[in-house]
Amino acid sequence: MTVLKTSLRNFLAHKGRMALSAVAVLLSVAFVCGTLVFTDTMNATFDKLFANTAADVSVGPKKNDDAQQTGKPATVPASLRAKLAEVKGVTKVEPSADSQQLTVVDGKKKSLSPTSGAPTVGTNWDERQKKSVEITSGHEPHGPAETVVDADTADKHGVKTGDTLRVIAAPGDFSVKVVGIATFKTTNPGAALFYFDTPTAQEKLLGSTGEFSGYGLTAASGVSDEQLKERVSAALGSSAGDYALRTAAESKEENKKDVGSFLDVMKYALLGFAGIAVLVGIFLIVNTFSMLVAQRTREIGLMRAIGSSRRQILRSVLVEAVLLGVVGSVLGIGGGVALAVGLMELMGSMGMKLDMNELTIKAATPVVGLAIGVVVTVLAACLPAFKATKISPMAALRDAGTPADGKAGKVRAAIGLVLTAVGGLALVAAAKSDDAAAGSGMLGIGVFLTLVGFVVVGPLLAGFVVRVISAIVLRAFGPVGRLAERNALRNPRRTGATASALMIGLALVAALSVVGSSMVASATDQLDKSVGADFIVQTENQQPLNPAVVKAIKSAGHVEHVTEYTIVNAKITTPDGRSATQRLSAVTPTYADDVRAETVKGNLKDAYAKDAMSVPEGFAKDHGIKLGDRLKVAMVDGRTAQLTVKAVTSDDTSIDKGAMYTNIATARSYLPADKMPLDFMVLAKAADGQTKEAAAALKASVEDYPQVKVRDQSDYKKLIKDQVGQLLNMIYGLLALAIIVAVLGVVNTLALSVVERTREIGLLRAIGLSRRQMRRMIRLESVVIALFGALLGLGLGMAWGTTSQKLLALQGLGVLDIPWPTIIAVFLGSAVVGLLAALVPAFRAGRMNVLNAIATD
Asked: Which of 790, 795, 827 lies closest to 499, judged by CA?
């Protein structure tokens, strides 16, 4: 009880000094708890949606990843409906006619598809839909010219009953009038939904009134879902294997897998950044307790002199850590809930409106948050606590302070140098590796060891690097600059620990900047070297191009030629007897001019002759394929061809790496027209001197199809840069949390350092140092520490990024690009961060009463 009282007294006595450490714990715990609450809420929302929409037993087409991408959904025959209705225990058979391969356009030729990546869904209206939505305006769709729109899409795009929309689907375009608005009873997962009557959905979305997307079966009372599934399977007999039969629970699980993969990526990415924040927070807490122990040296010595044991001293410090962990964790749990609400609002702005009533806080979430906060805080406080137990009572009472262990410092420096050296060798090995998997393993080892090595050797580096930075930055400030340098070097271990926290976040920023910039530079270089086409035409959501779009492009003026590009799935049997399903790039012969693929054998233009093809270098080597070999190519859903290998393409590229080429006419000759995949991309070459006119003509030709974008090479390069930039900006935003915690560490170090040097500050003021000079000294000390951390972090990050690029070069991304403007901006920004971190400590130092400061014991 005495230990608890002492710890509580010390904790409250230093509550101001503990506040920043508590904020670090709060932020770390908030990120973890916020992630858990958000993902649990998402899972609960989708679970409820899937539970409301799943039939007792569903019958649909069997999933086939090798099927040709014709733009039409997989279907089951309409004749199956009568057979299912006869199964004992089936009370209702509800057919569905669904497609996600459509675009809906309003009267202003504006696409109504979500911009969040969620699908646009067209489906038939029946009793099944009433489980999830209700018509709140207008009426149900009747006939081929009517549709009902979900309320969220209608609100977002200003769609009203009476408006006319155009639906662009694979079977063709058609116009409909909005006759109703449907509101979700649960949460709209972000999709845009359009409902049609059943015959219209069959004909216009699936391409035939003799097909359905699947059937939902309702079980009779007393018949379980499993029993009904078994009966359906028995009724279908040998053809049961051609269909996917699922109970409601299995359908729910299948749907959860599709959504769960996205949620898991988000969850673990956010938790990863939370882990980085926790790691950075450890440095802050270690520094806080190290300085508090140092400042209470005499107090601890007195406690030891009057009979307190080493164990009691240890327990006293650790109890303070537990109190800090509990306070920070409790606040962090509340902050996590607020963060989850913020993420839900963000998802709402992107089109996925989550109901706050669905906010899910599982019992495990606060337990996890509390455990992380307390355990991390106690572990971080262990080293200072053990150091406190080593304080000699007599030495402490003489104000000798905590004994410095020179031998321990040398051992630490030696260990740090060894770890850094071994980590550096691992990075070199990764950069020189010819195998991506082995190189990635060495990269991971190198990143870990160099990071730990830099943290351990930080105090040794501080002595040298801080002097160099000071010589460049502080000399202009005269005696005040020299005082700031001396203060930063006074305790290298503290300076190293404070800078290490900032180093971690900035190292990740630098590494990702190098990788991102190199990816953009490599892609740009490949475009310049390989792509001869003037224009690239694709849909925004990477869906196949509607045949009408391709026809319109071909009719555009000022165009020399148009190249079609699609992917055909085929089972290829090689001369060594092995067979596997591969993807054939089926193109028109002008592709050889539009994309200059290097060959190691033969001429690529010859591969576009009738019944000819090319293979990539690696594939040819693995299967012993030579020029002139005939490969057995069985087109999926089509006939088998014997194609002659006319060219072997180089693997030293990132554009179409590993592609097998054949003439699109060859593919069409072995596939039925309704099984031929739609074009995924179209390339166009402008007539000589008519680039501007061709661009205008191509854009005019696709004006009625807003989902289709015509880009020239500069537009495409910008698209790549923007996509990489968006990803990096999101990552930078998440890393900002770690950097904020690191900045708090700088503030905490300076604040405690000011308290520690109270008498010294008073003496400096007494001999003539002005308040302004005092504040400047604290600010310069902060800038030096921040620049030290930035220099280490940026140097380490560039090493990681350069090694990563060398590995990416194995995939064709061979250009290393160091984003110096970003690196320099981050370095200079670190100086600004140092200035901001010093504002409060500097202000406090400047306001000290000189006489009281000198009299401080």
From this structure: 790
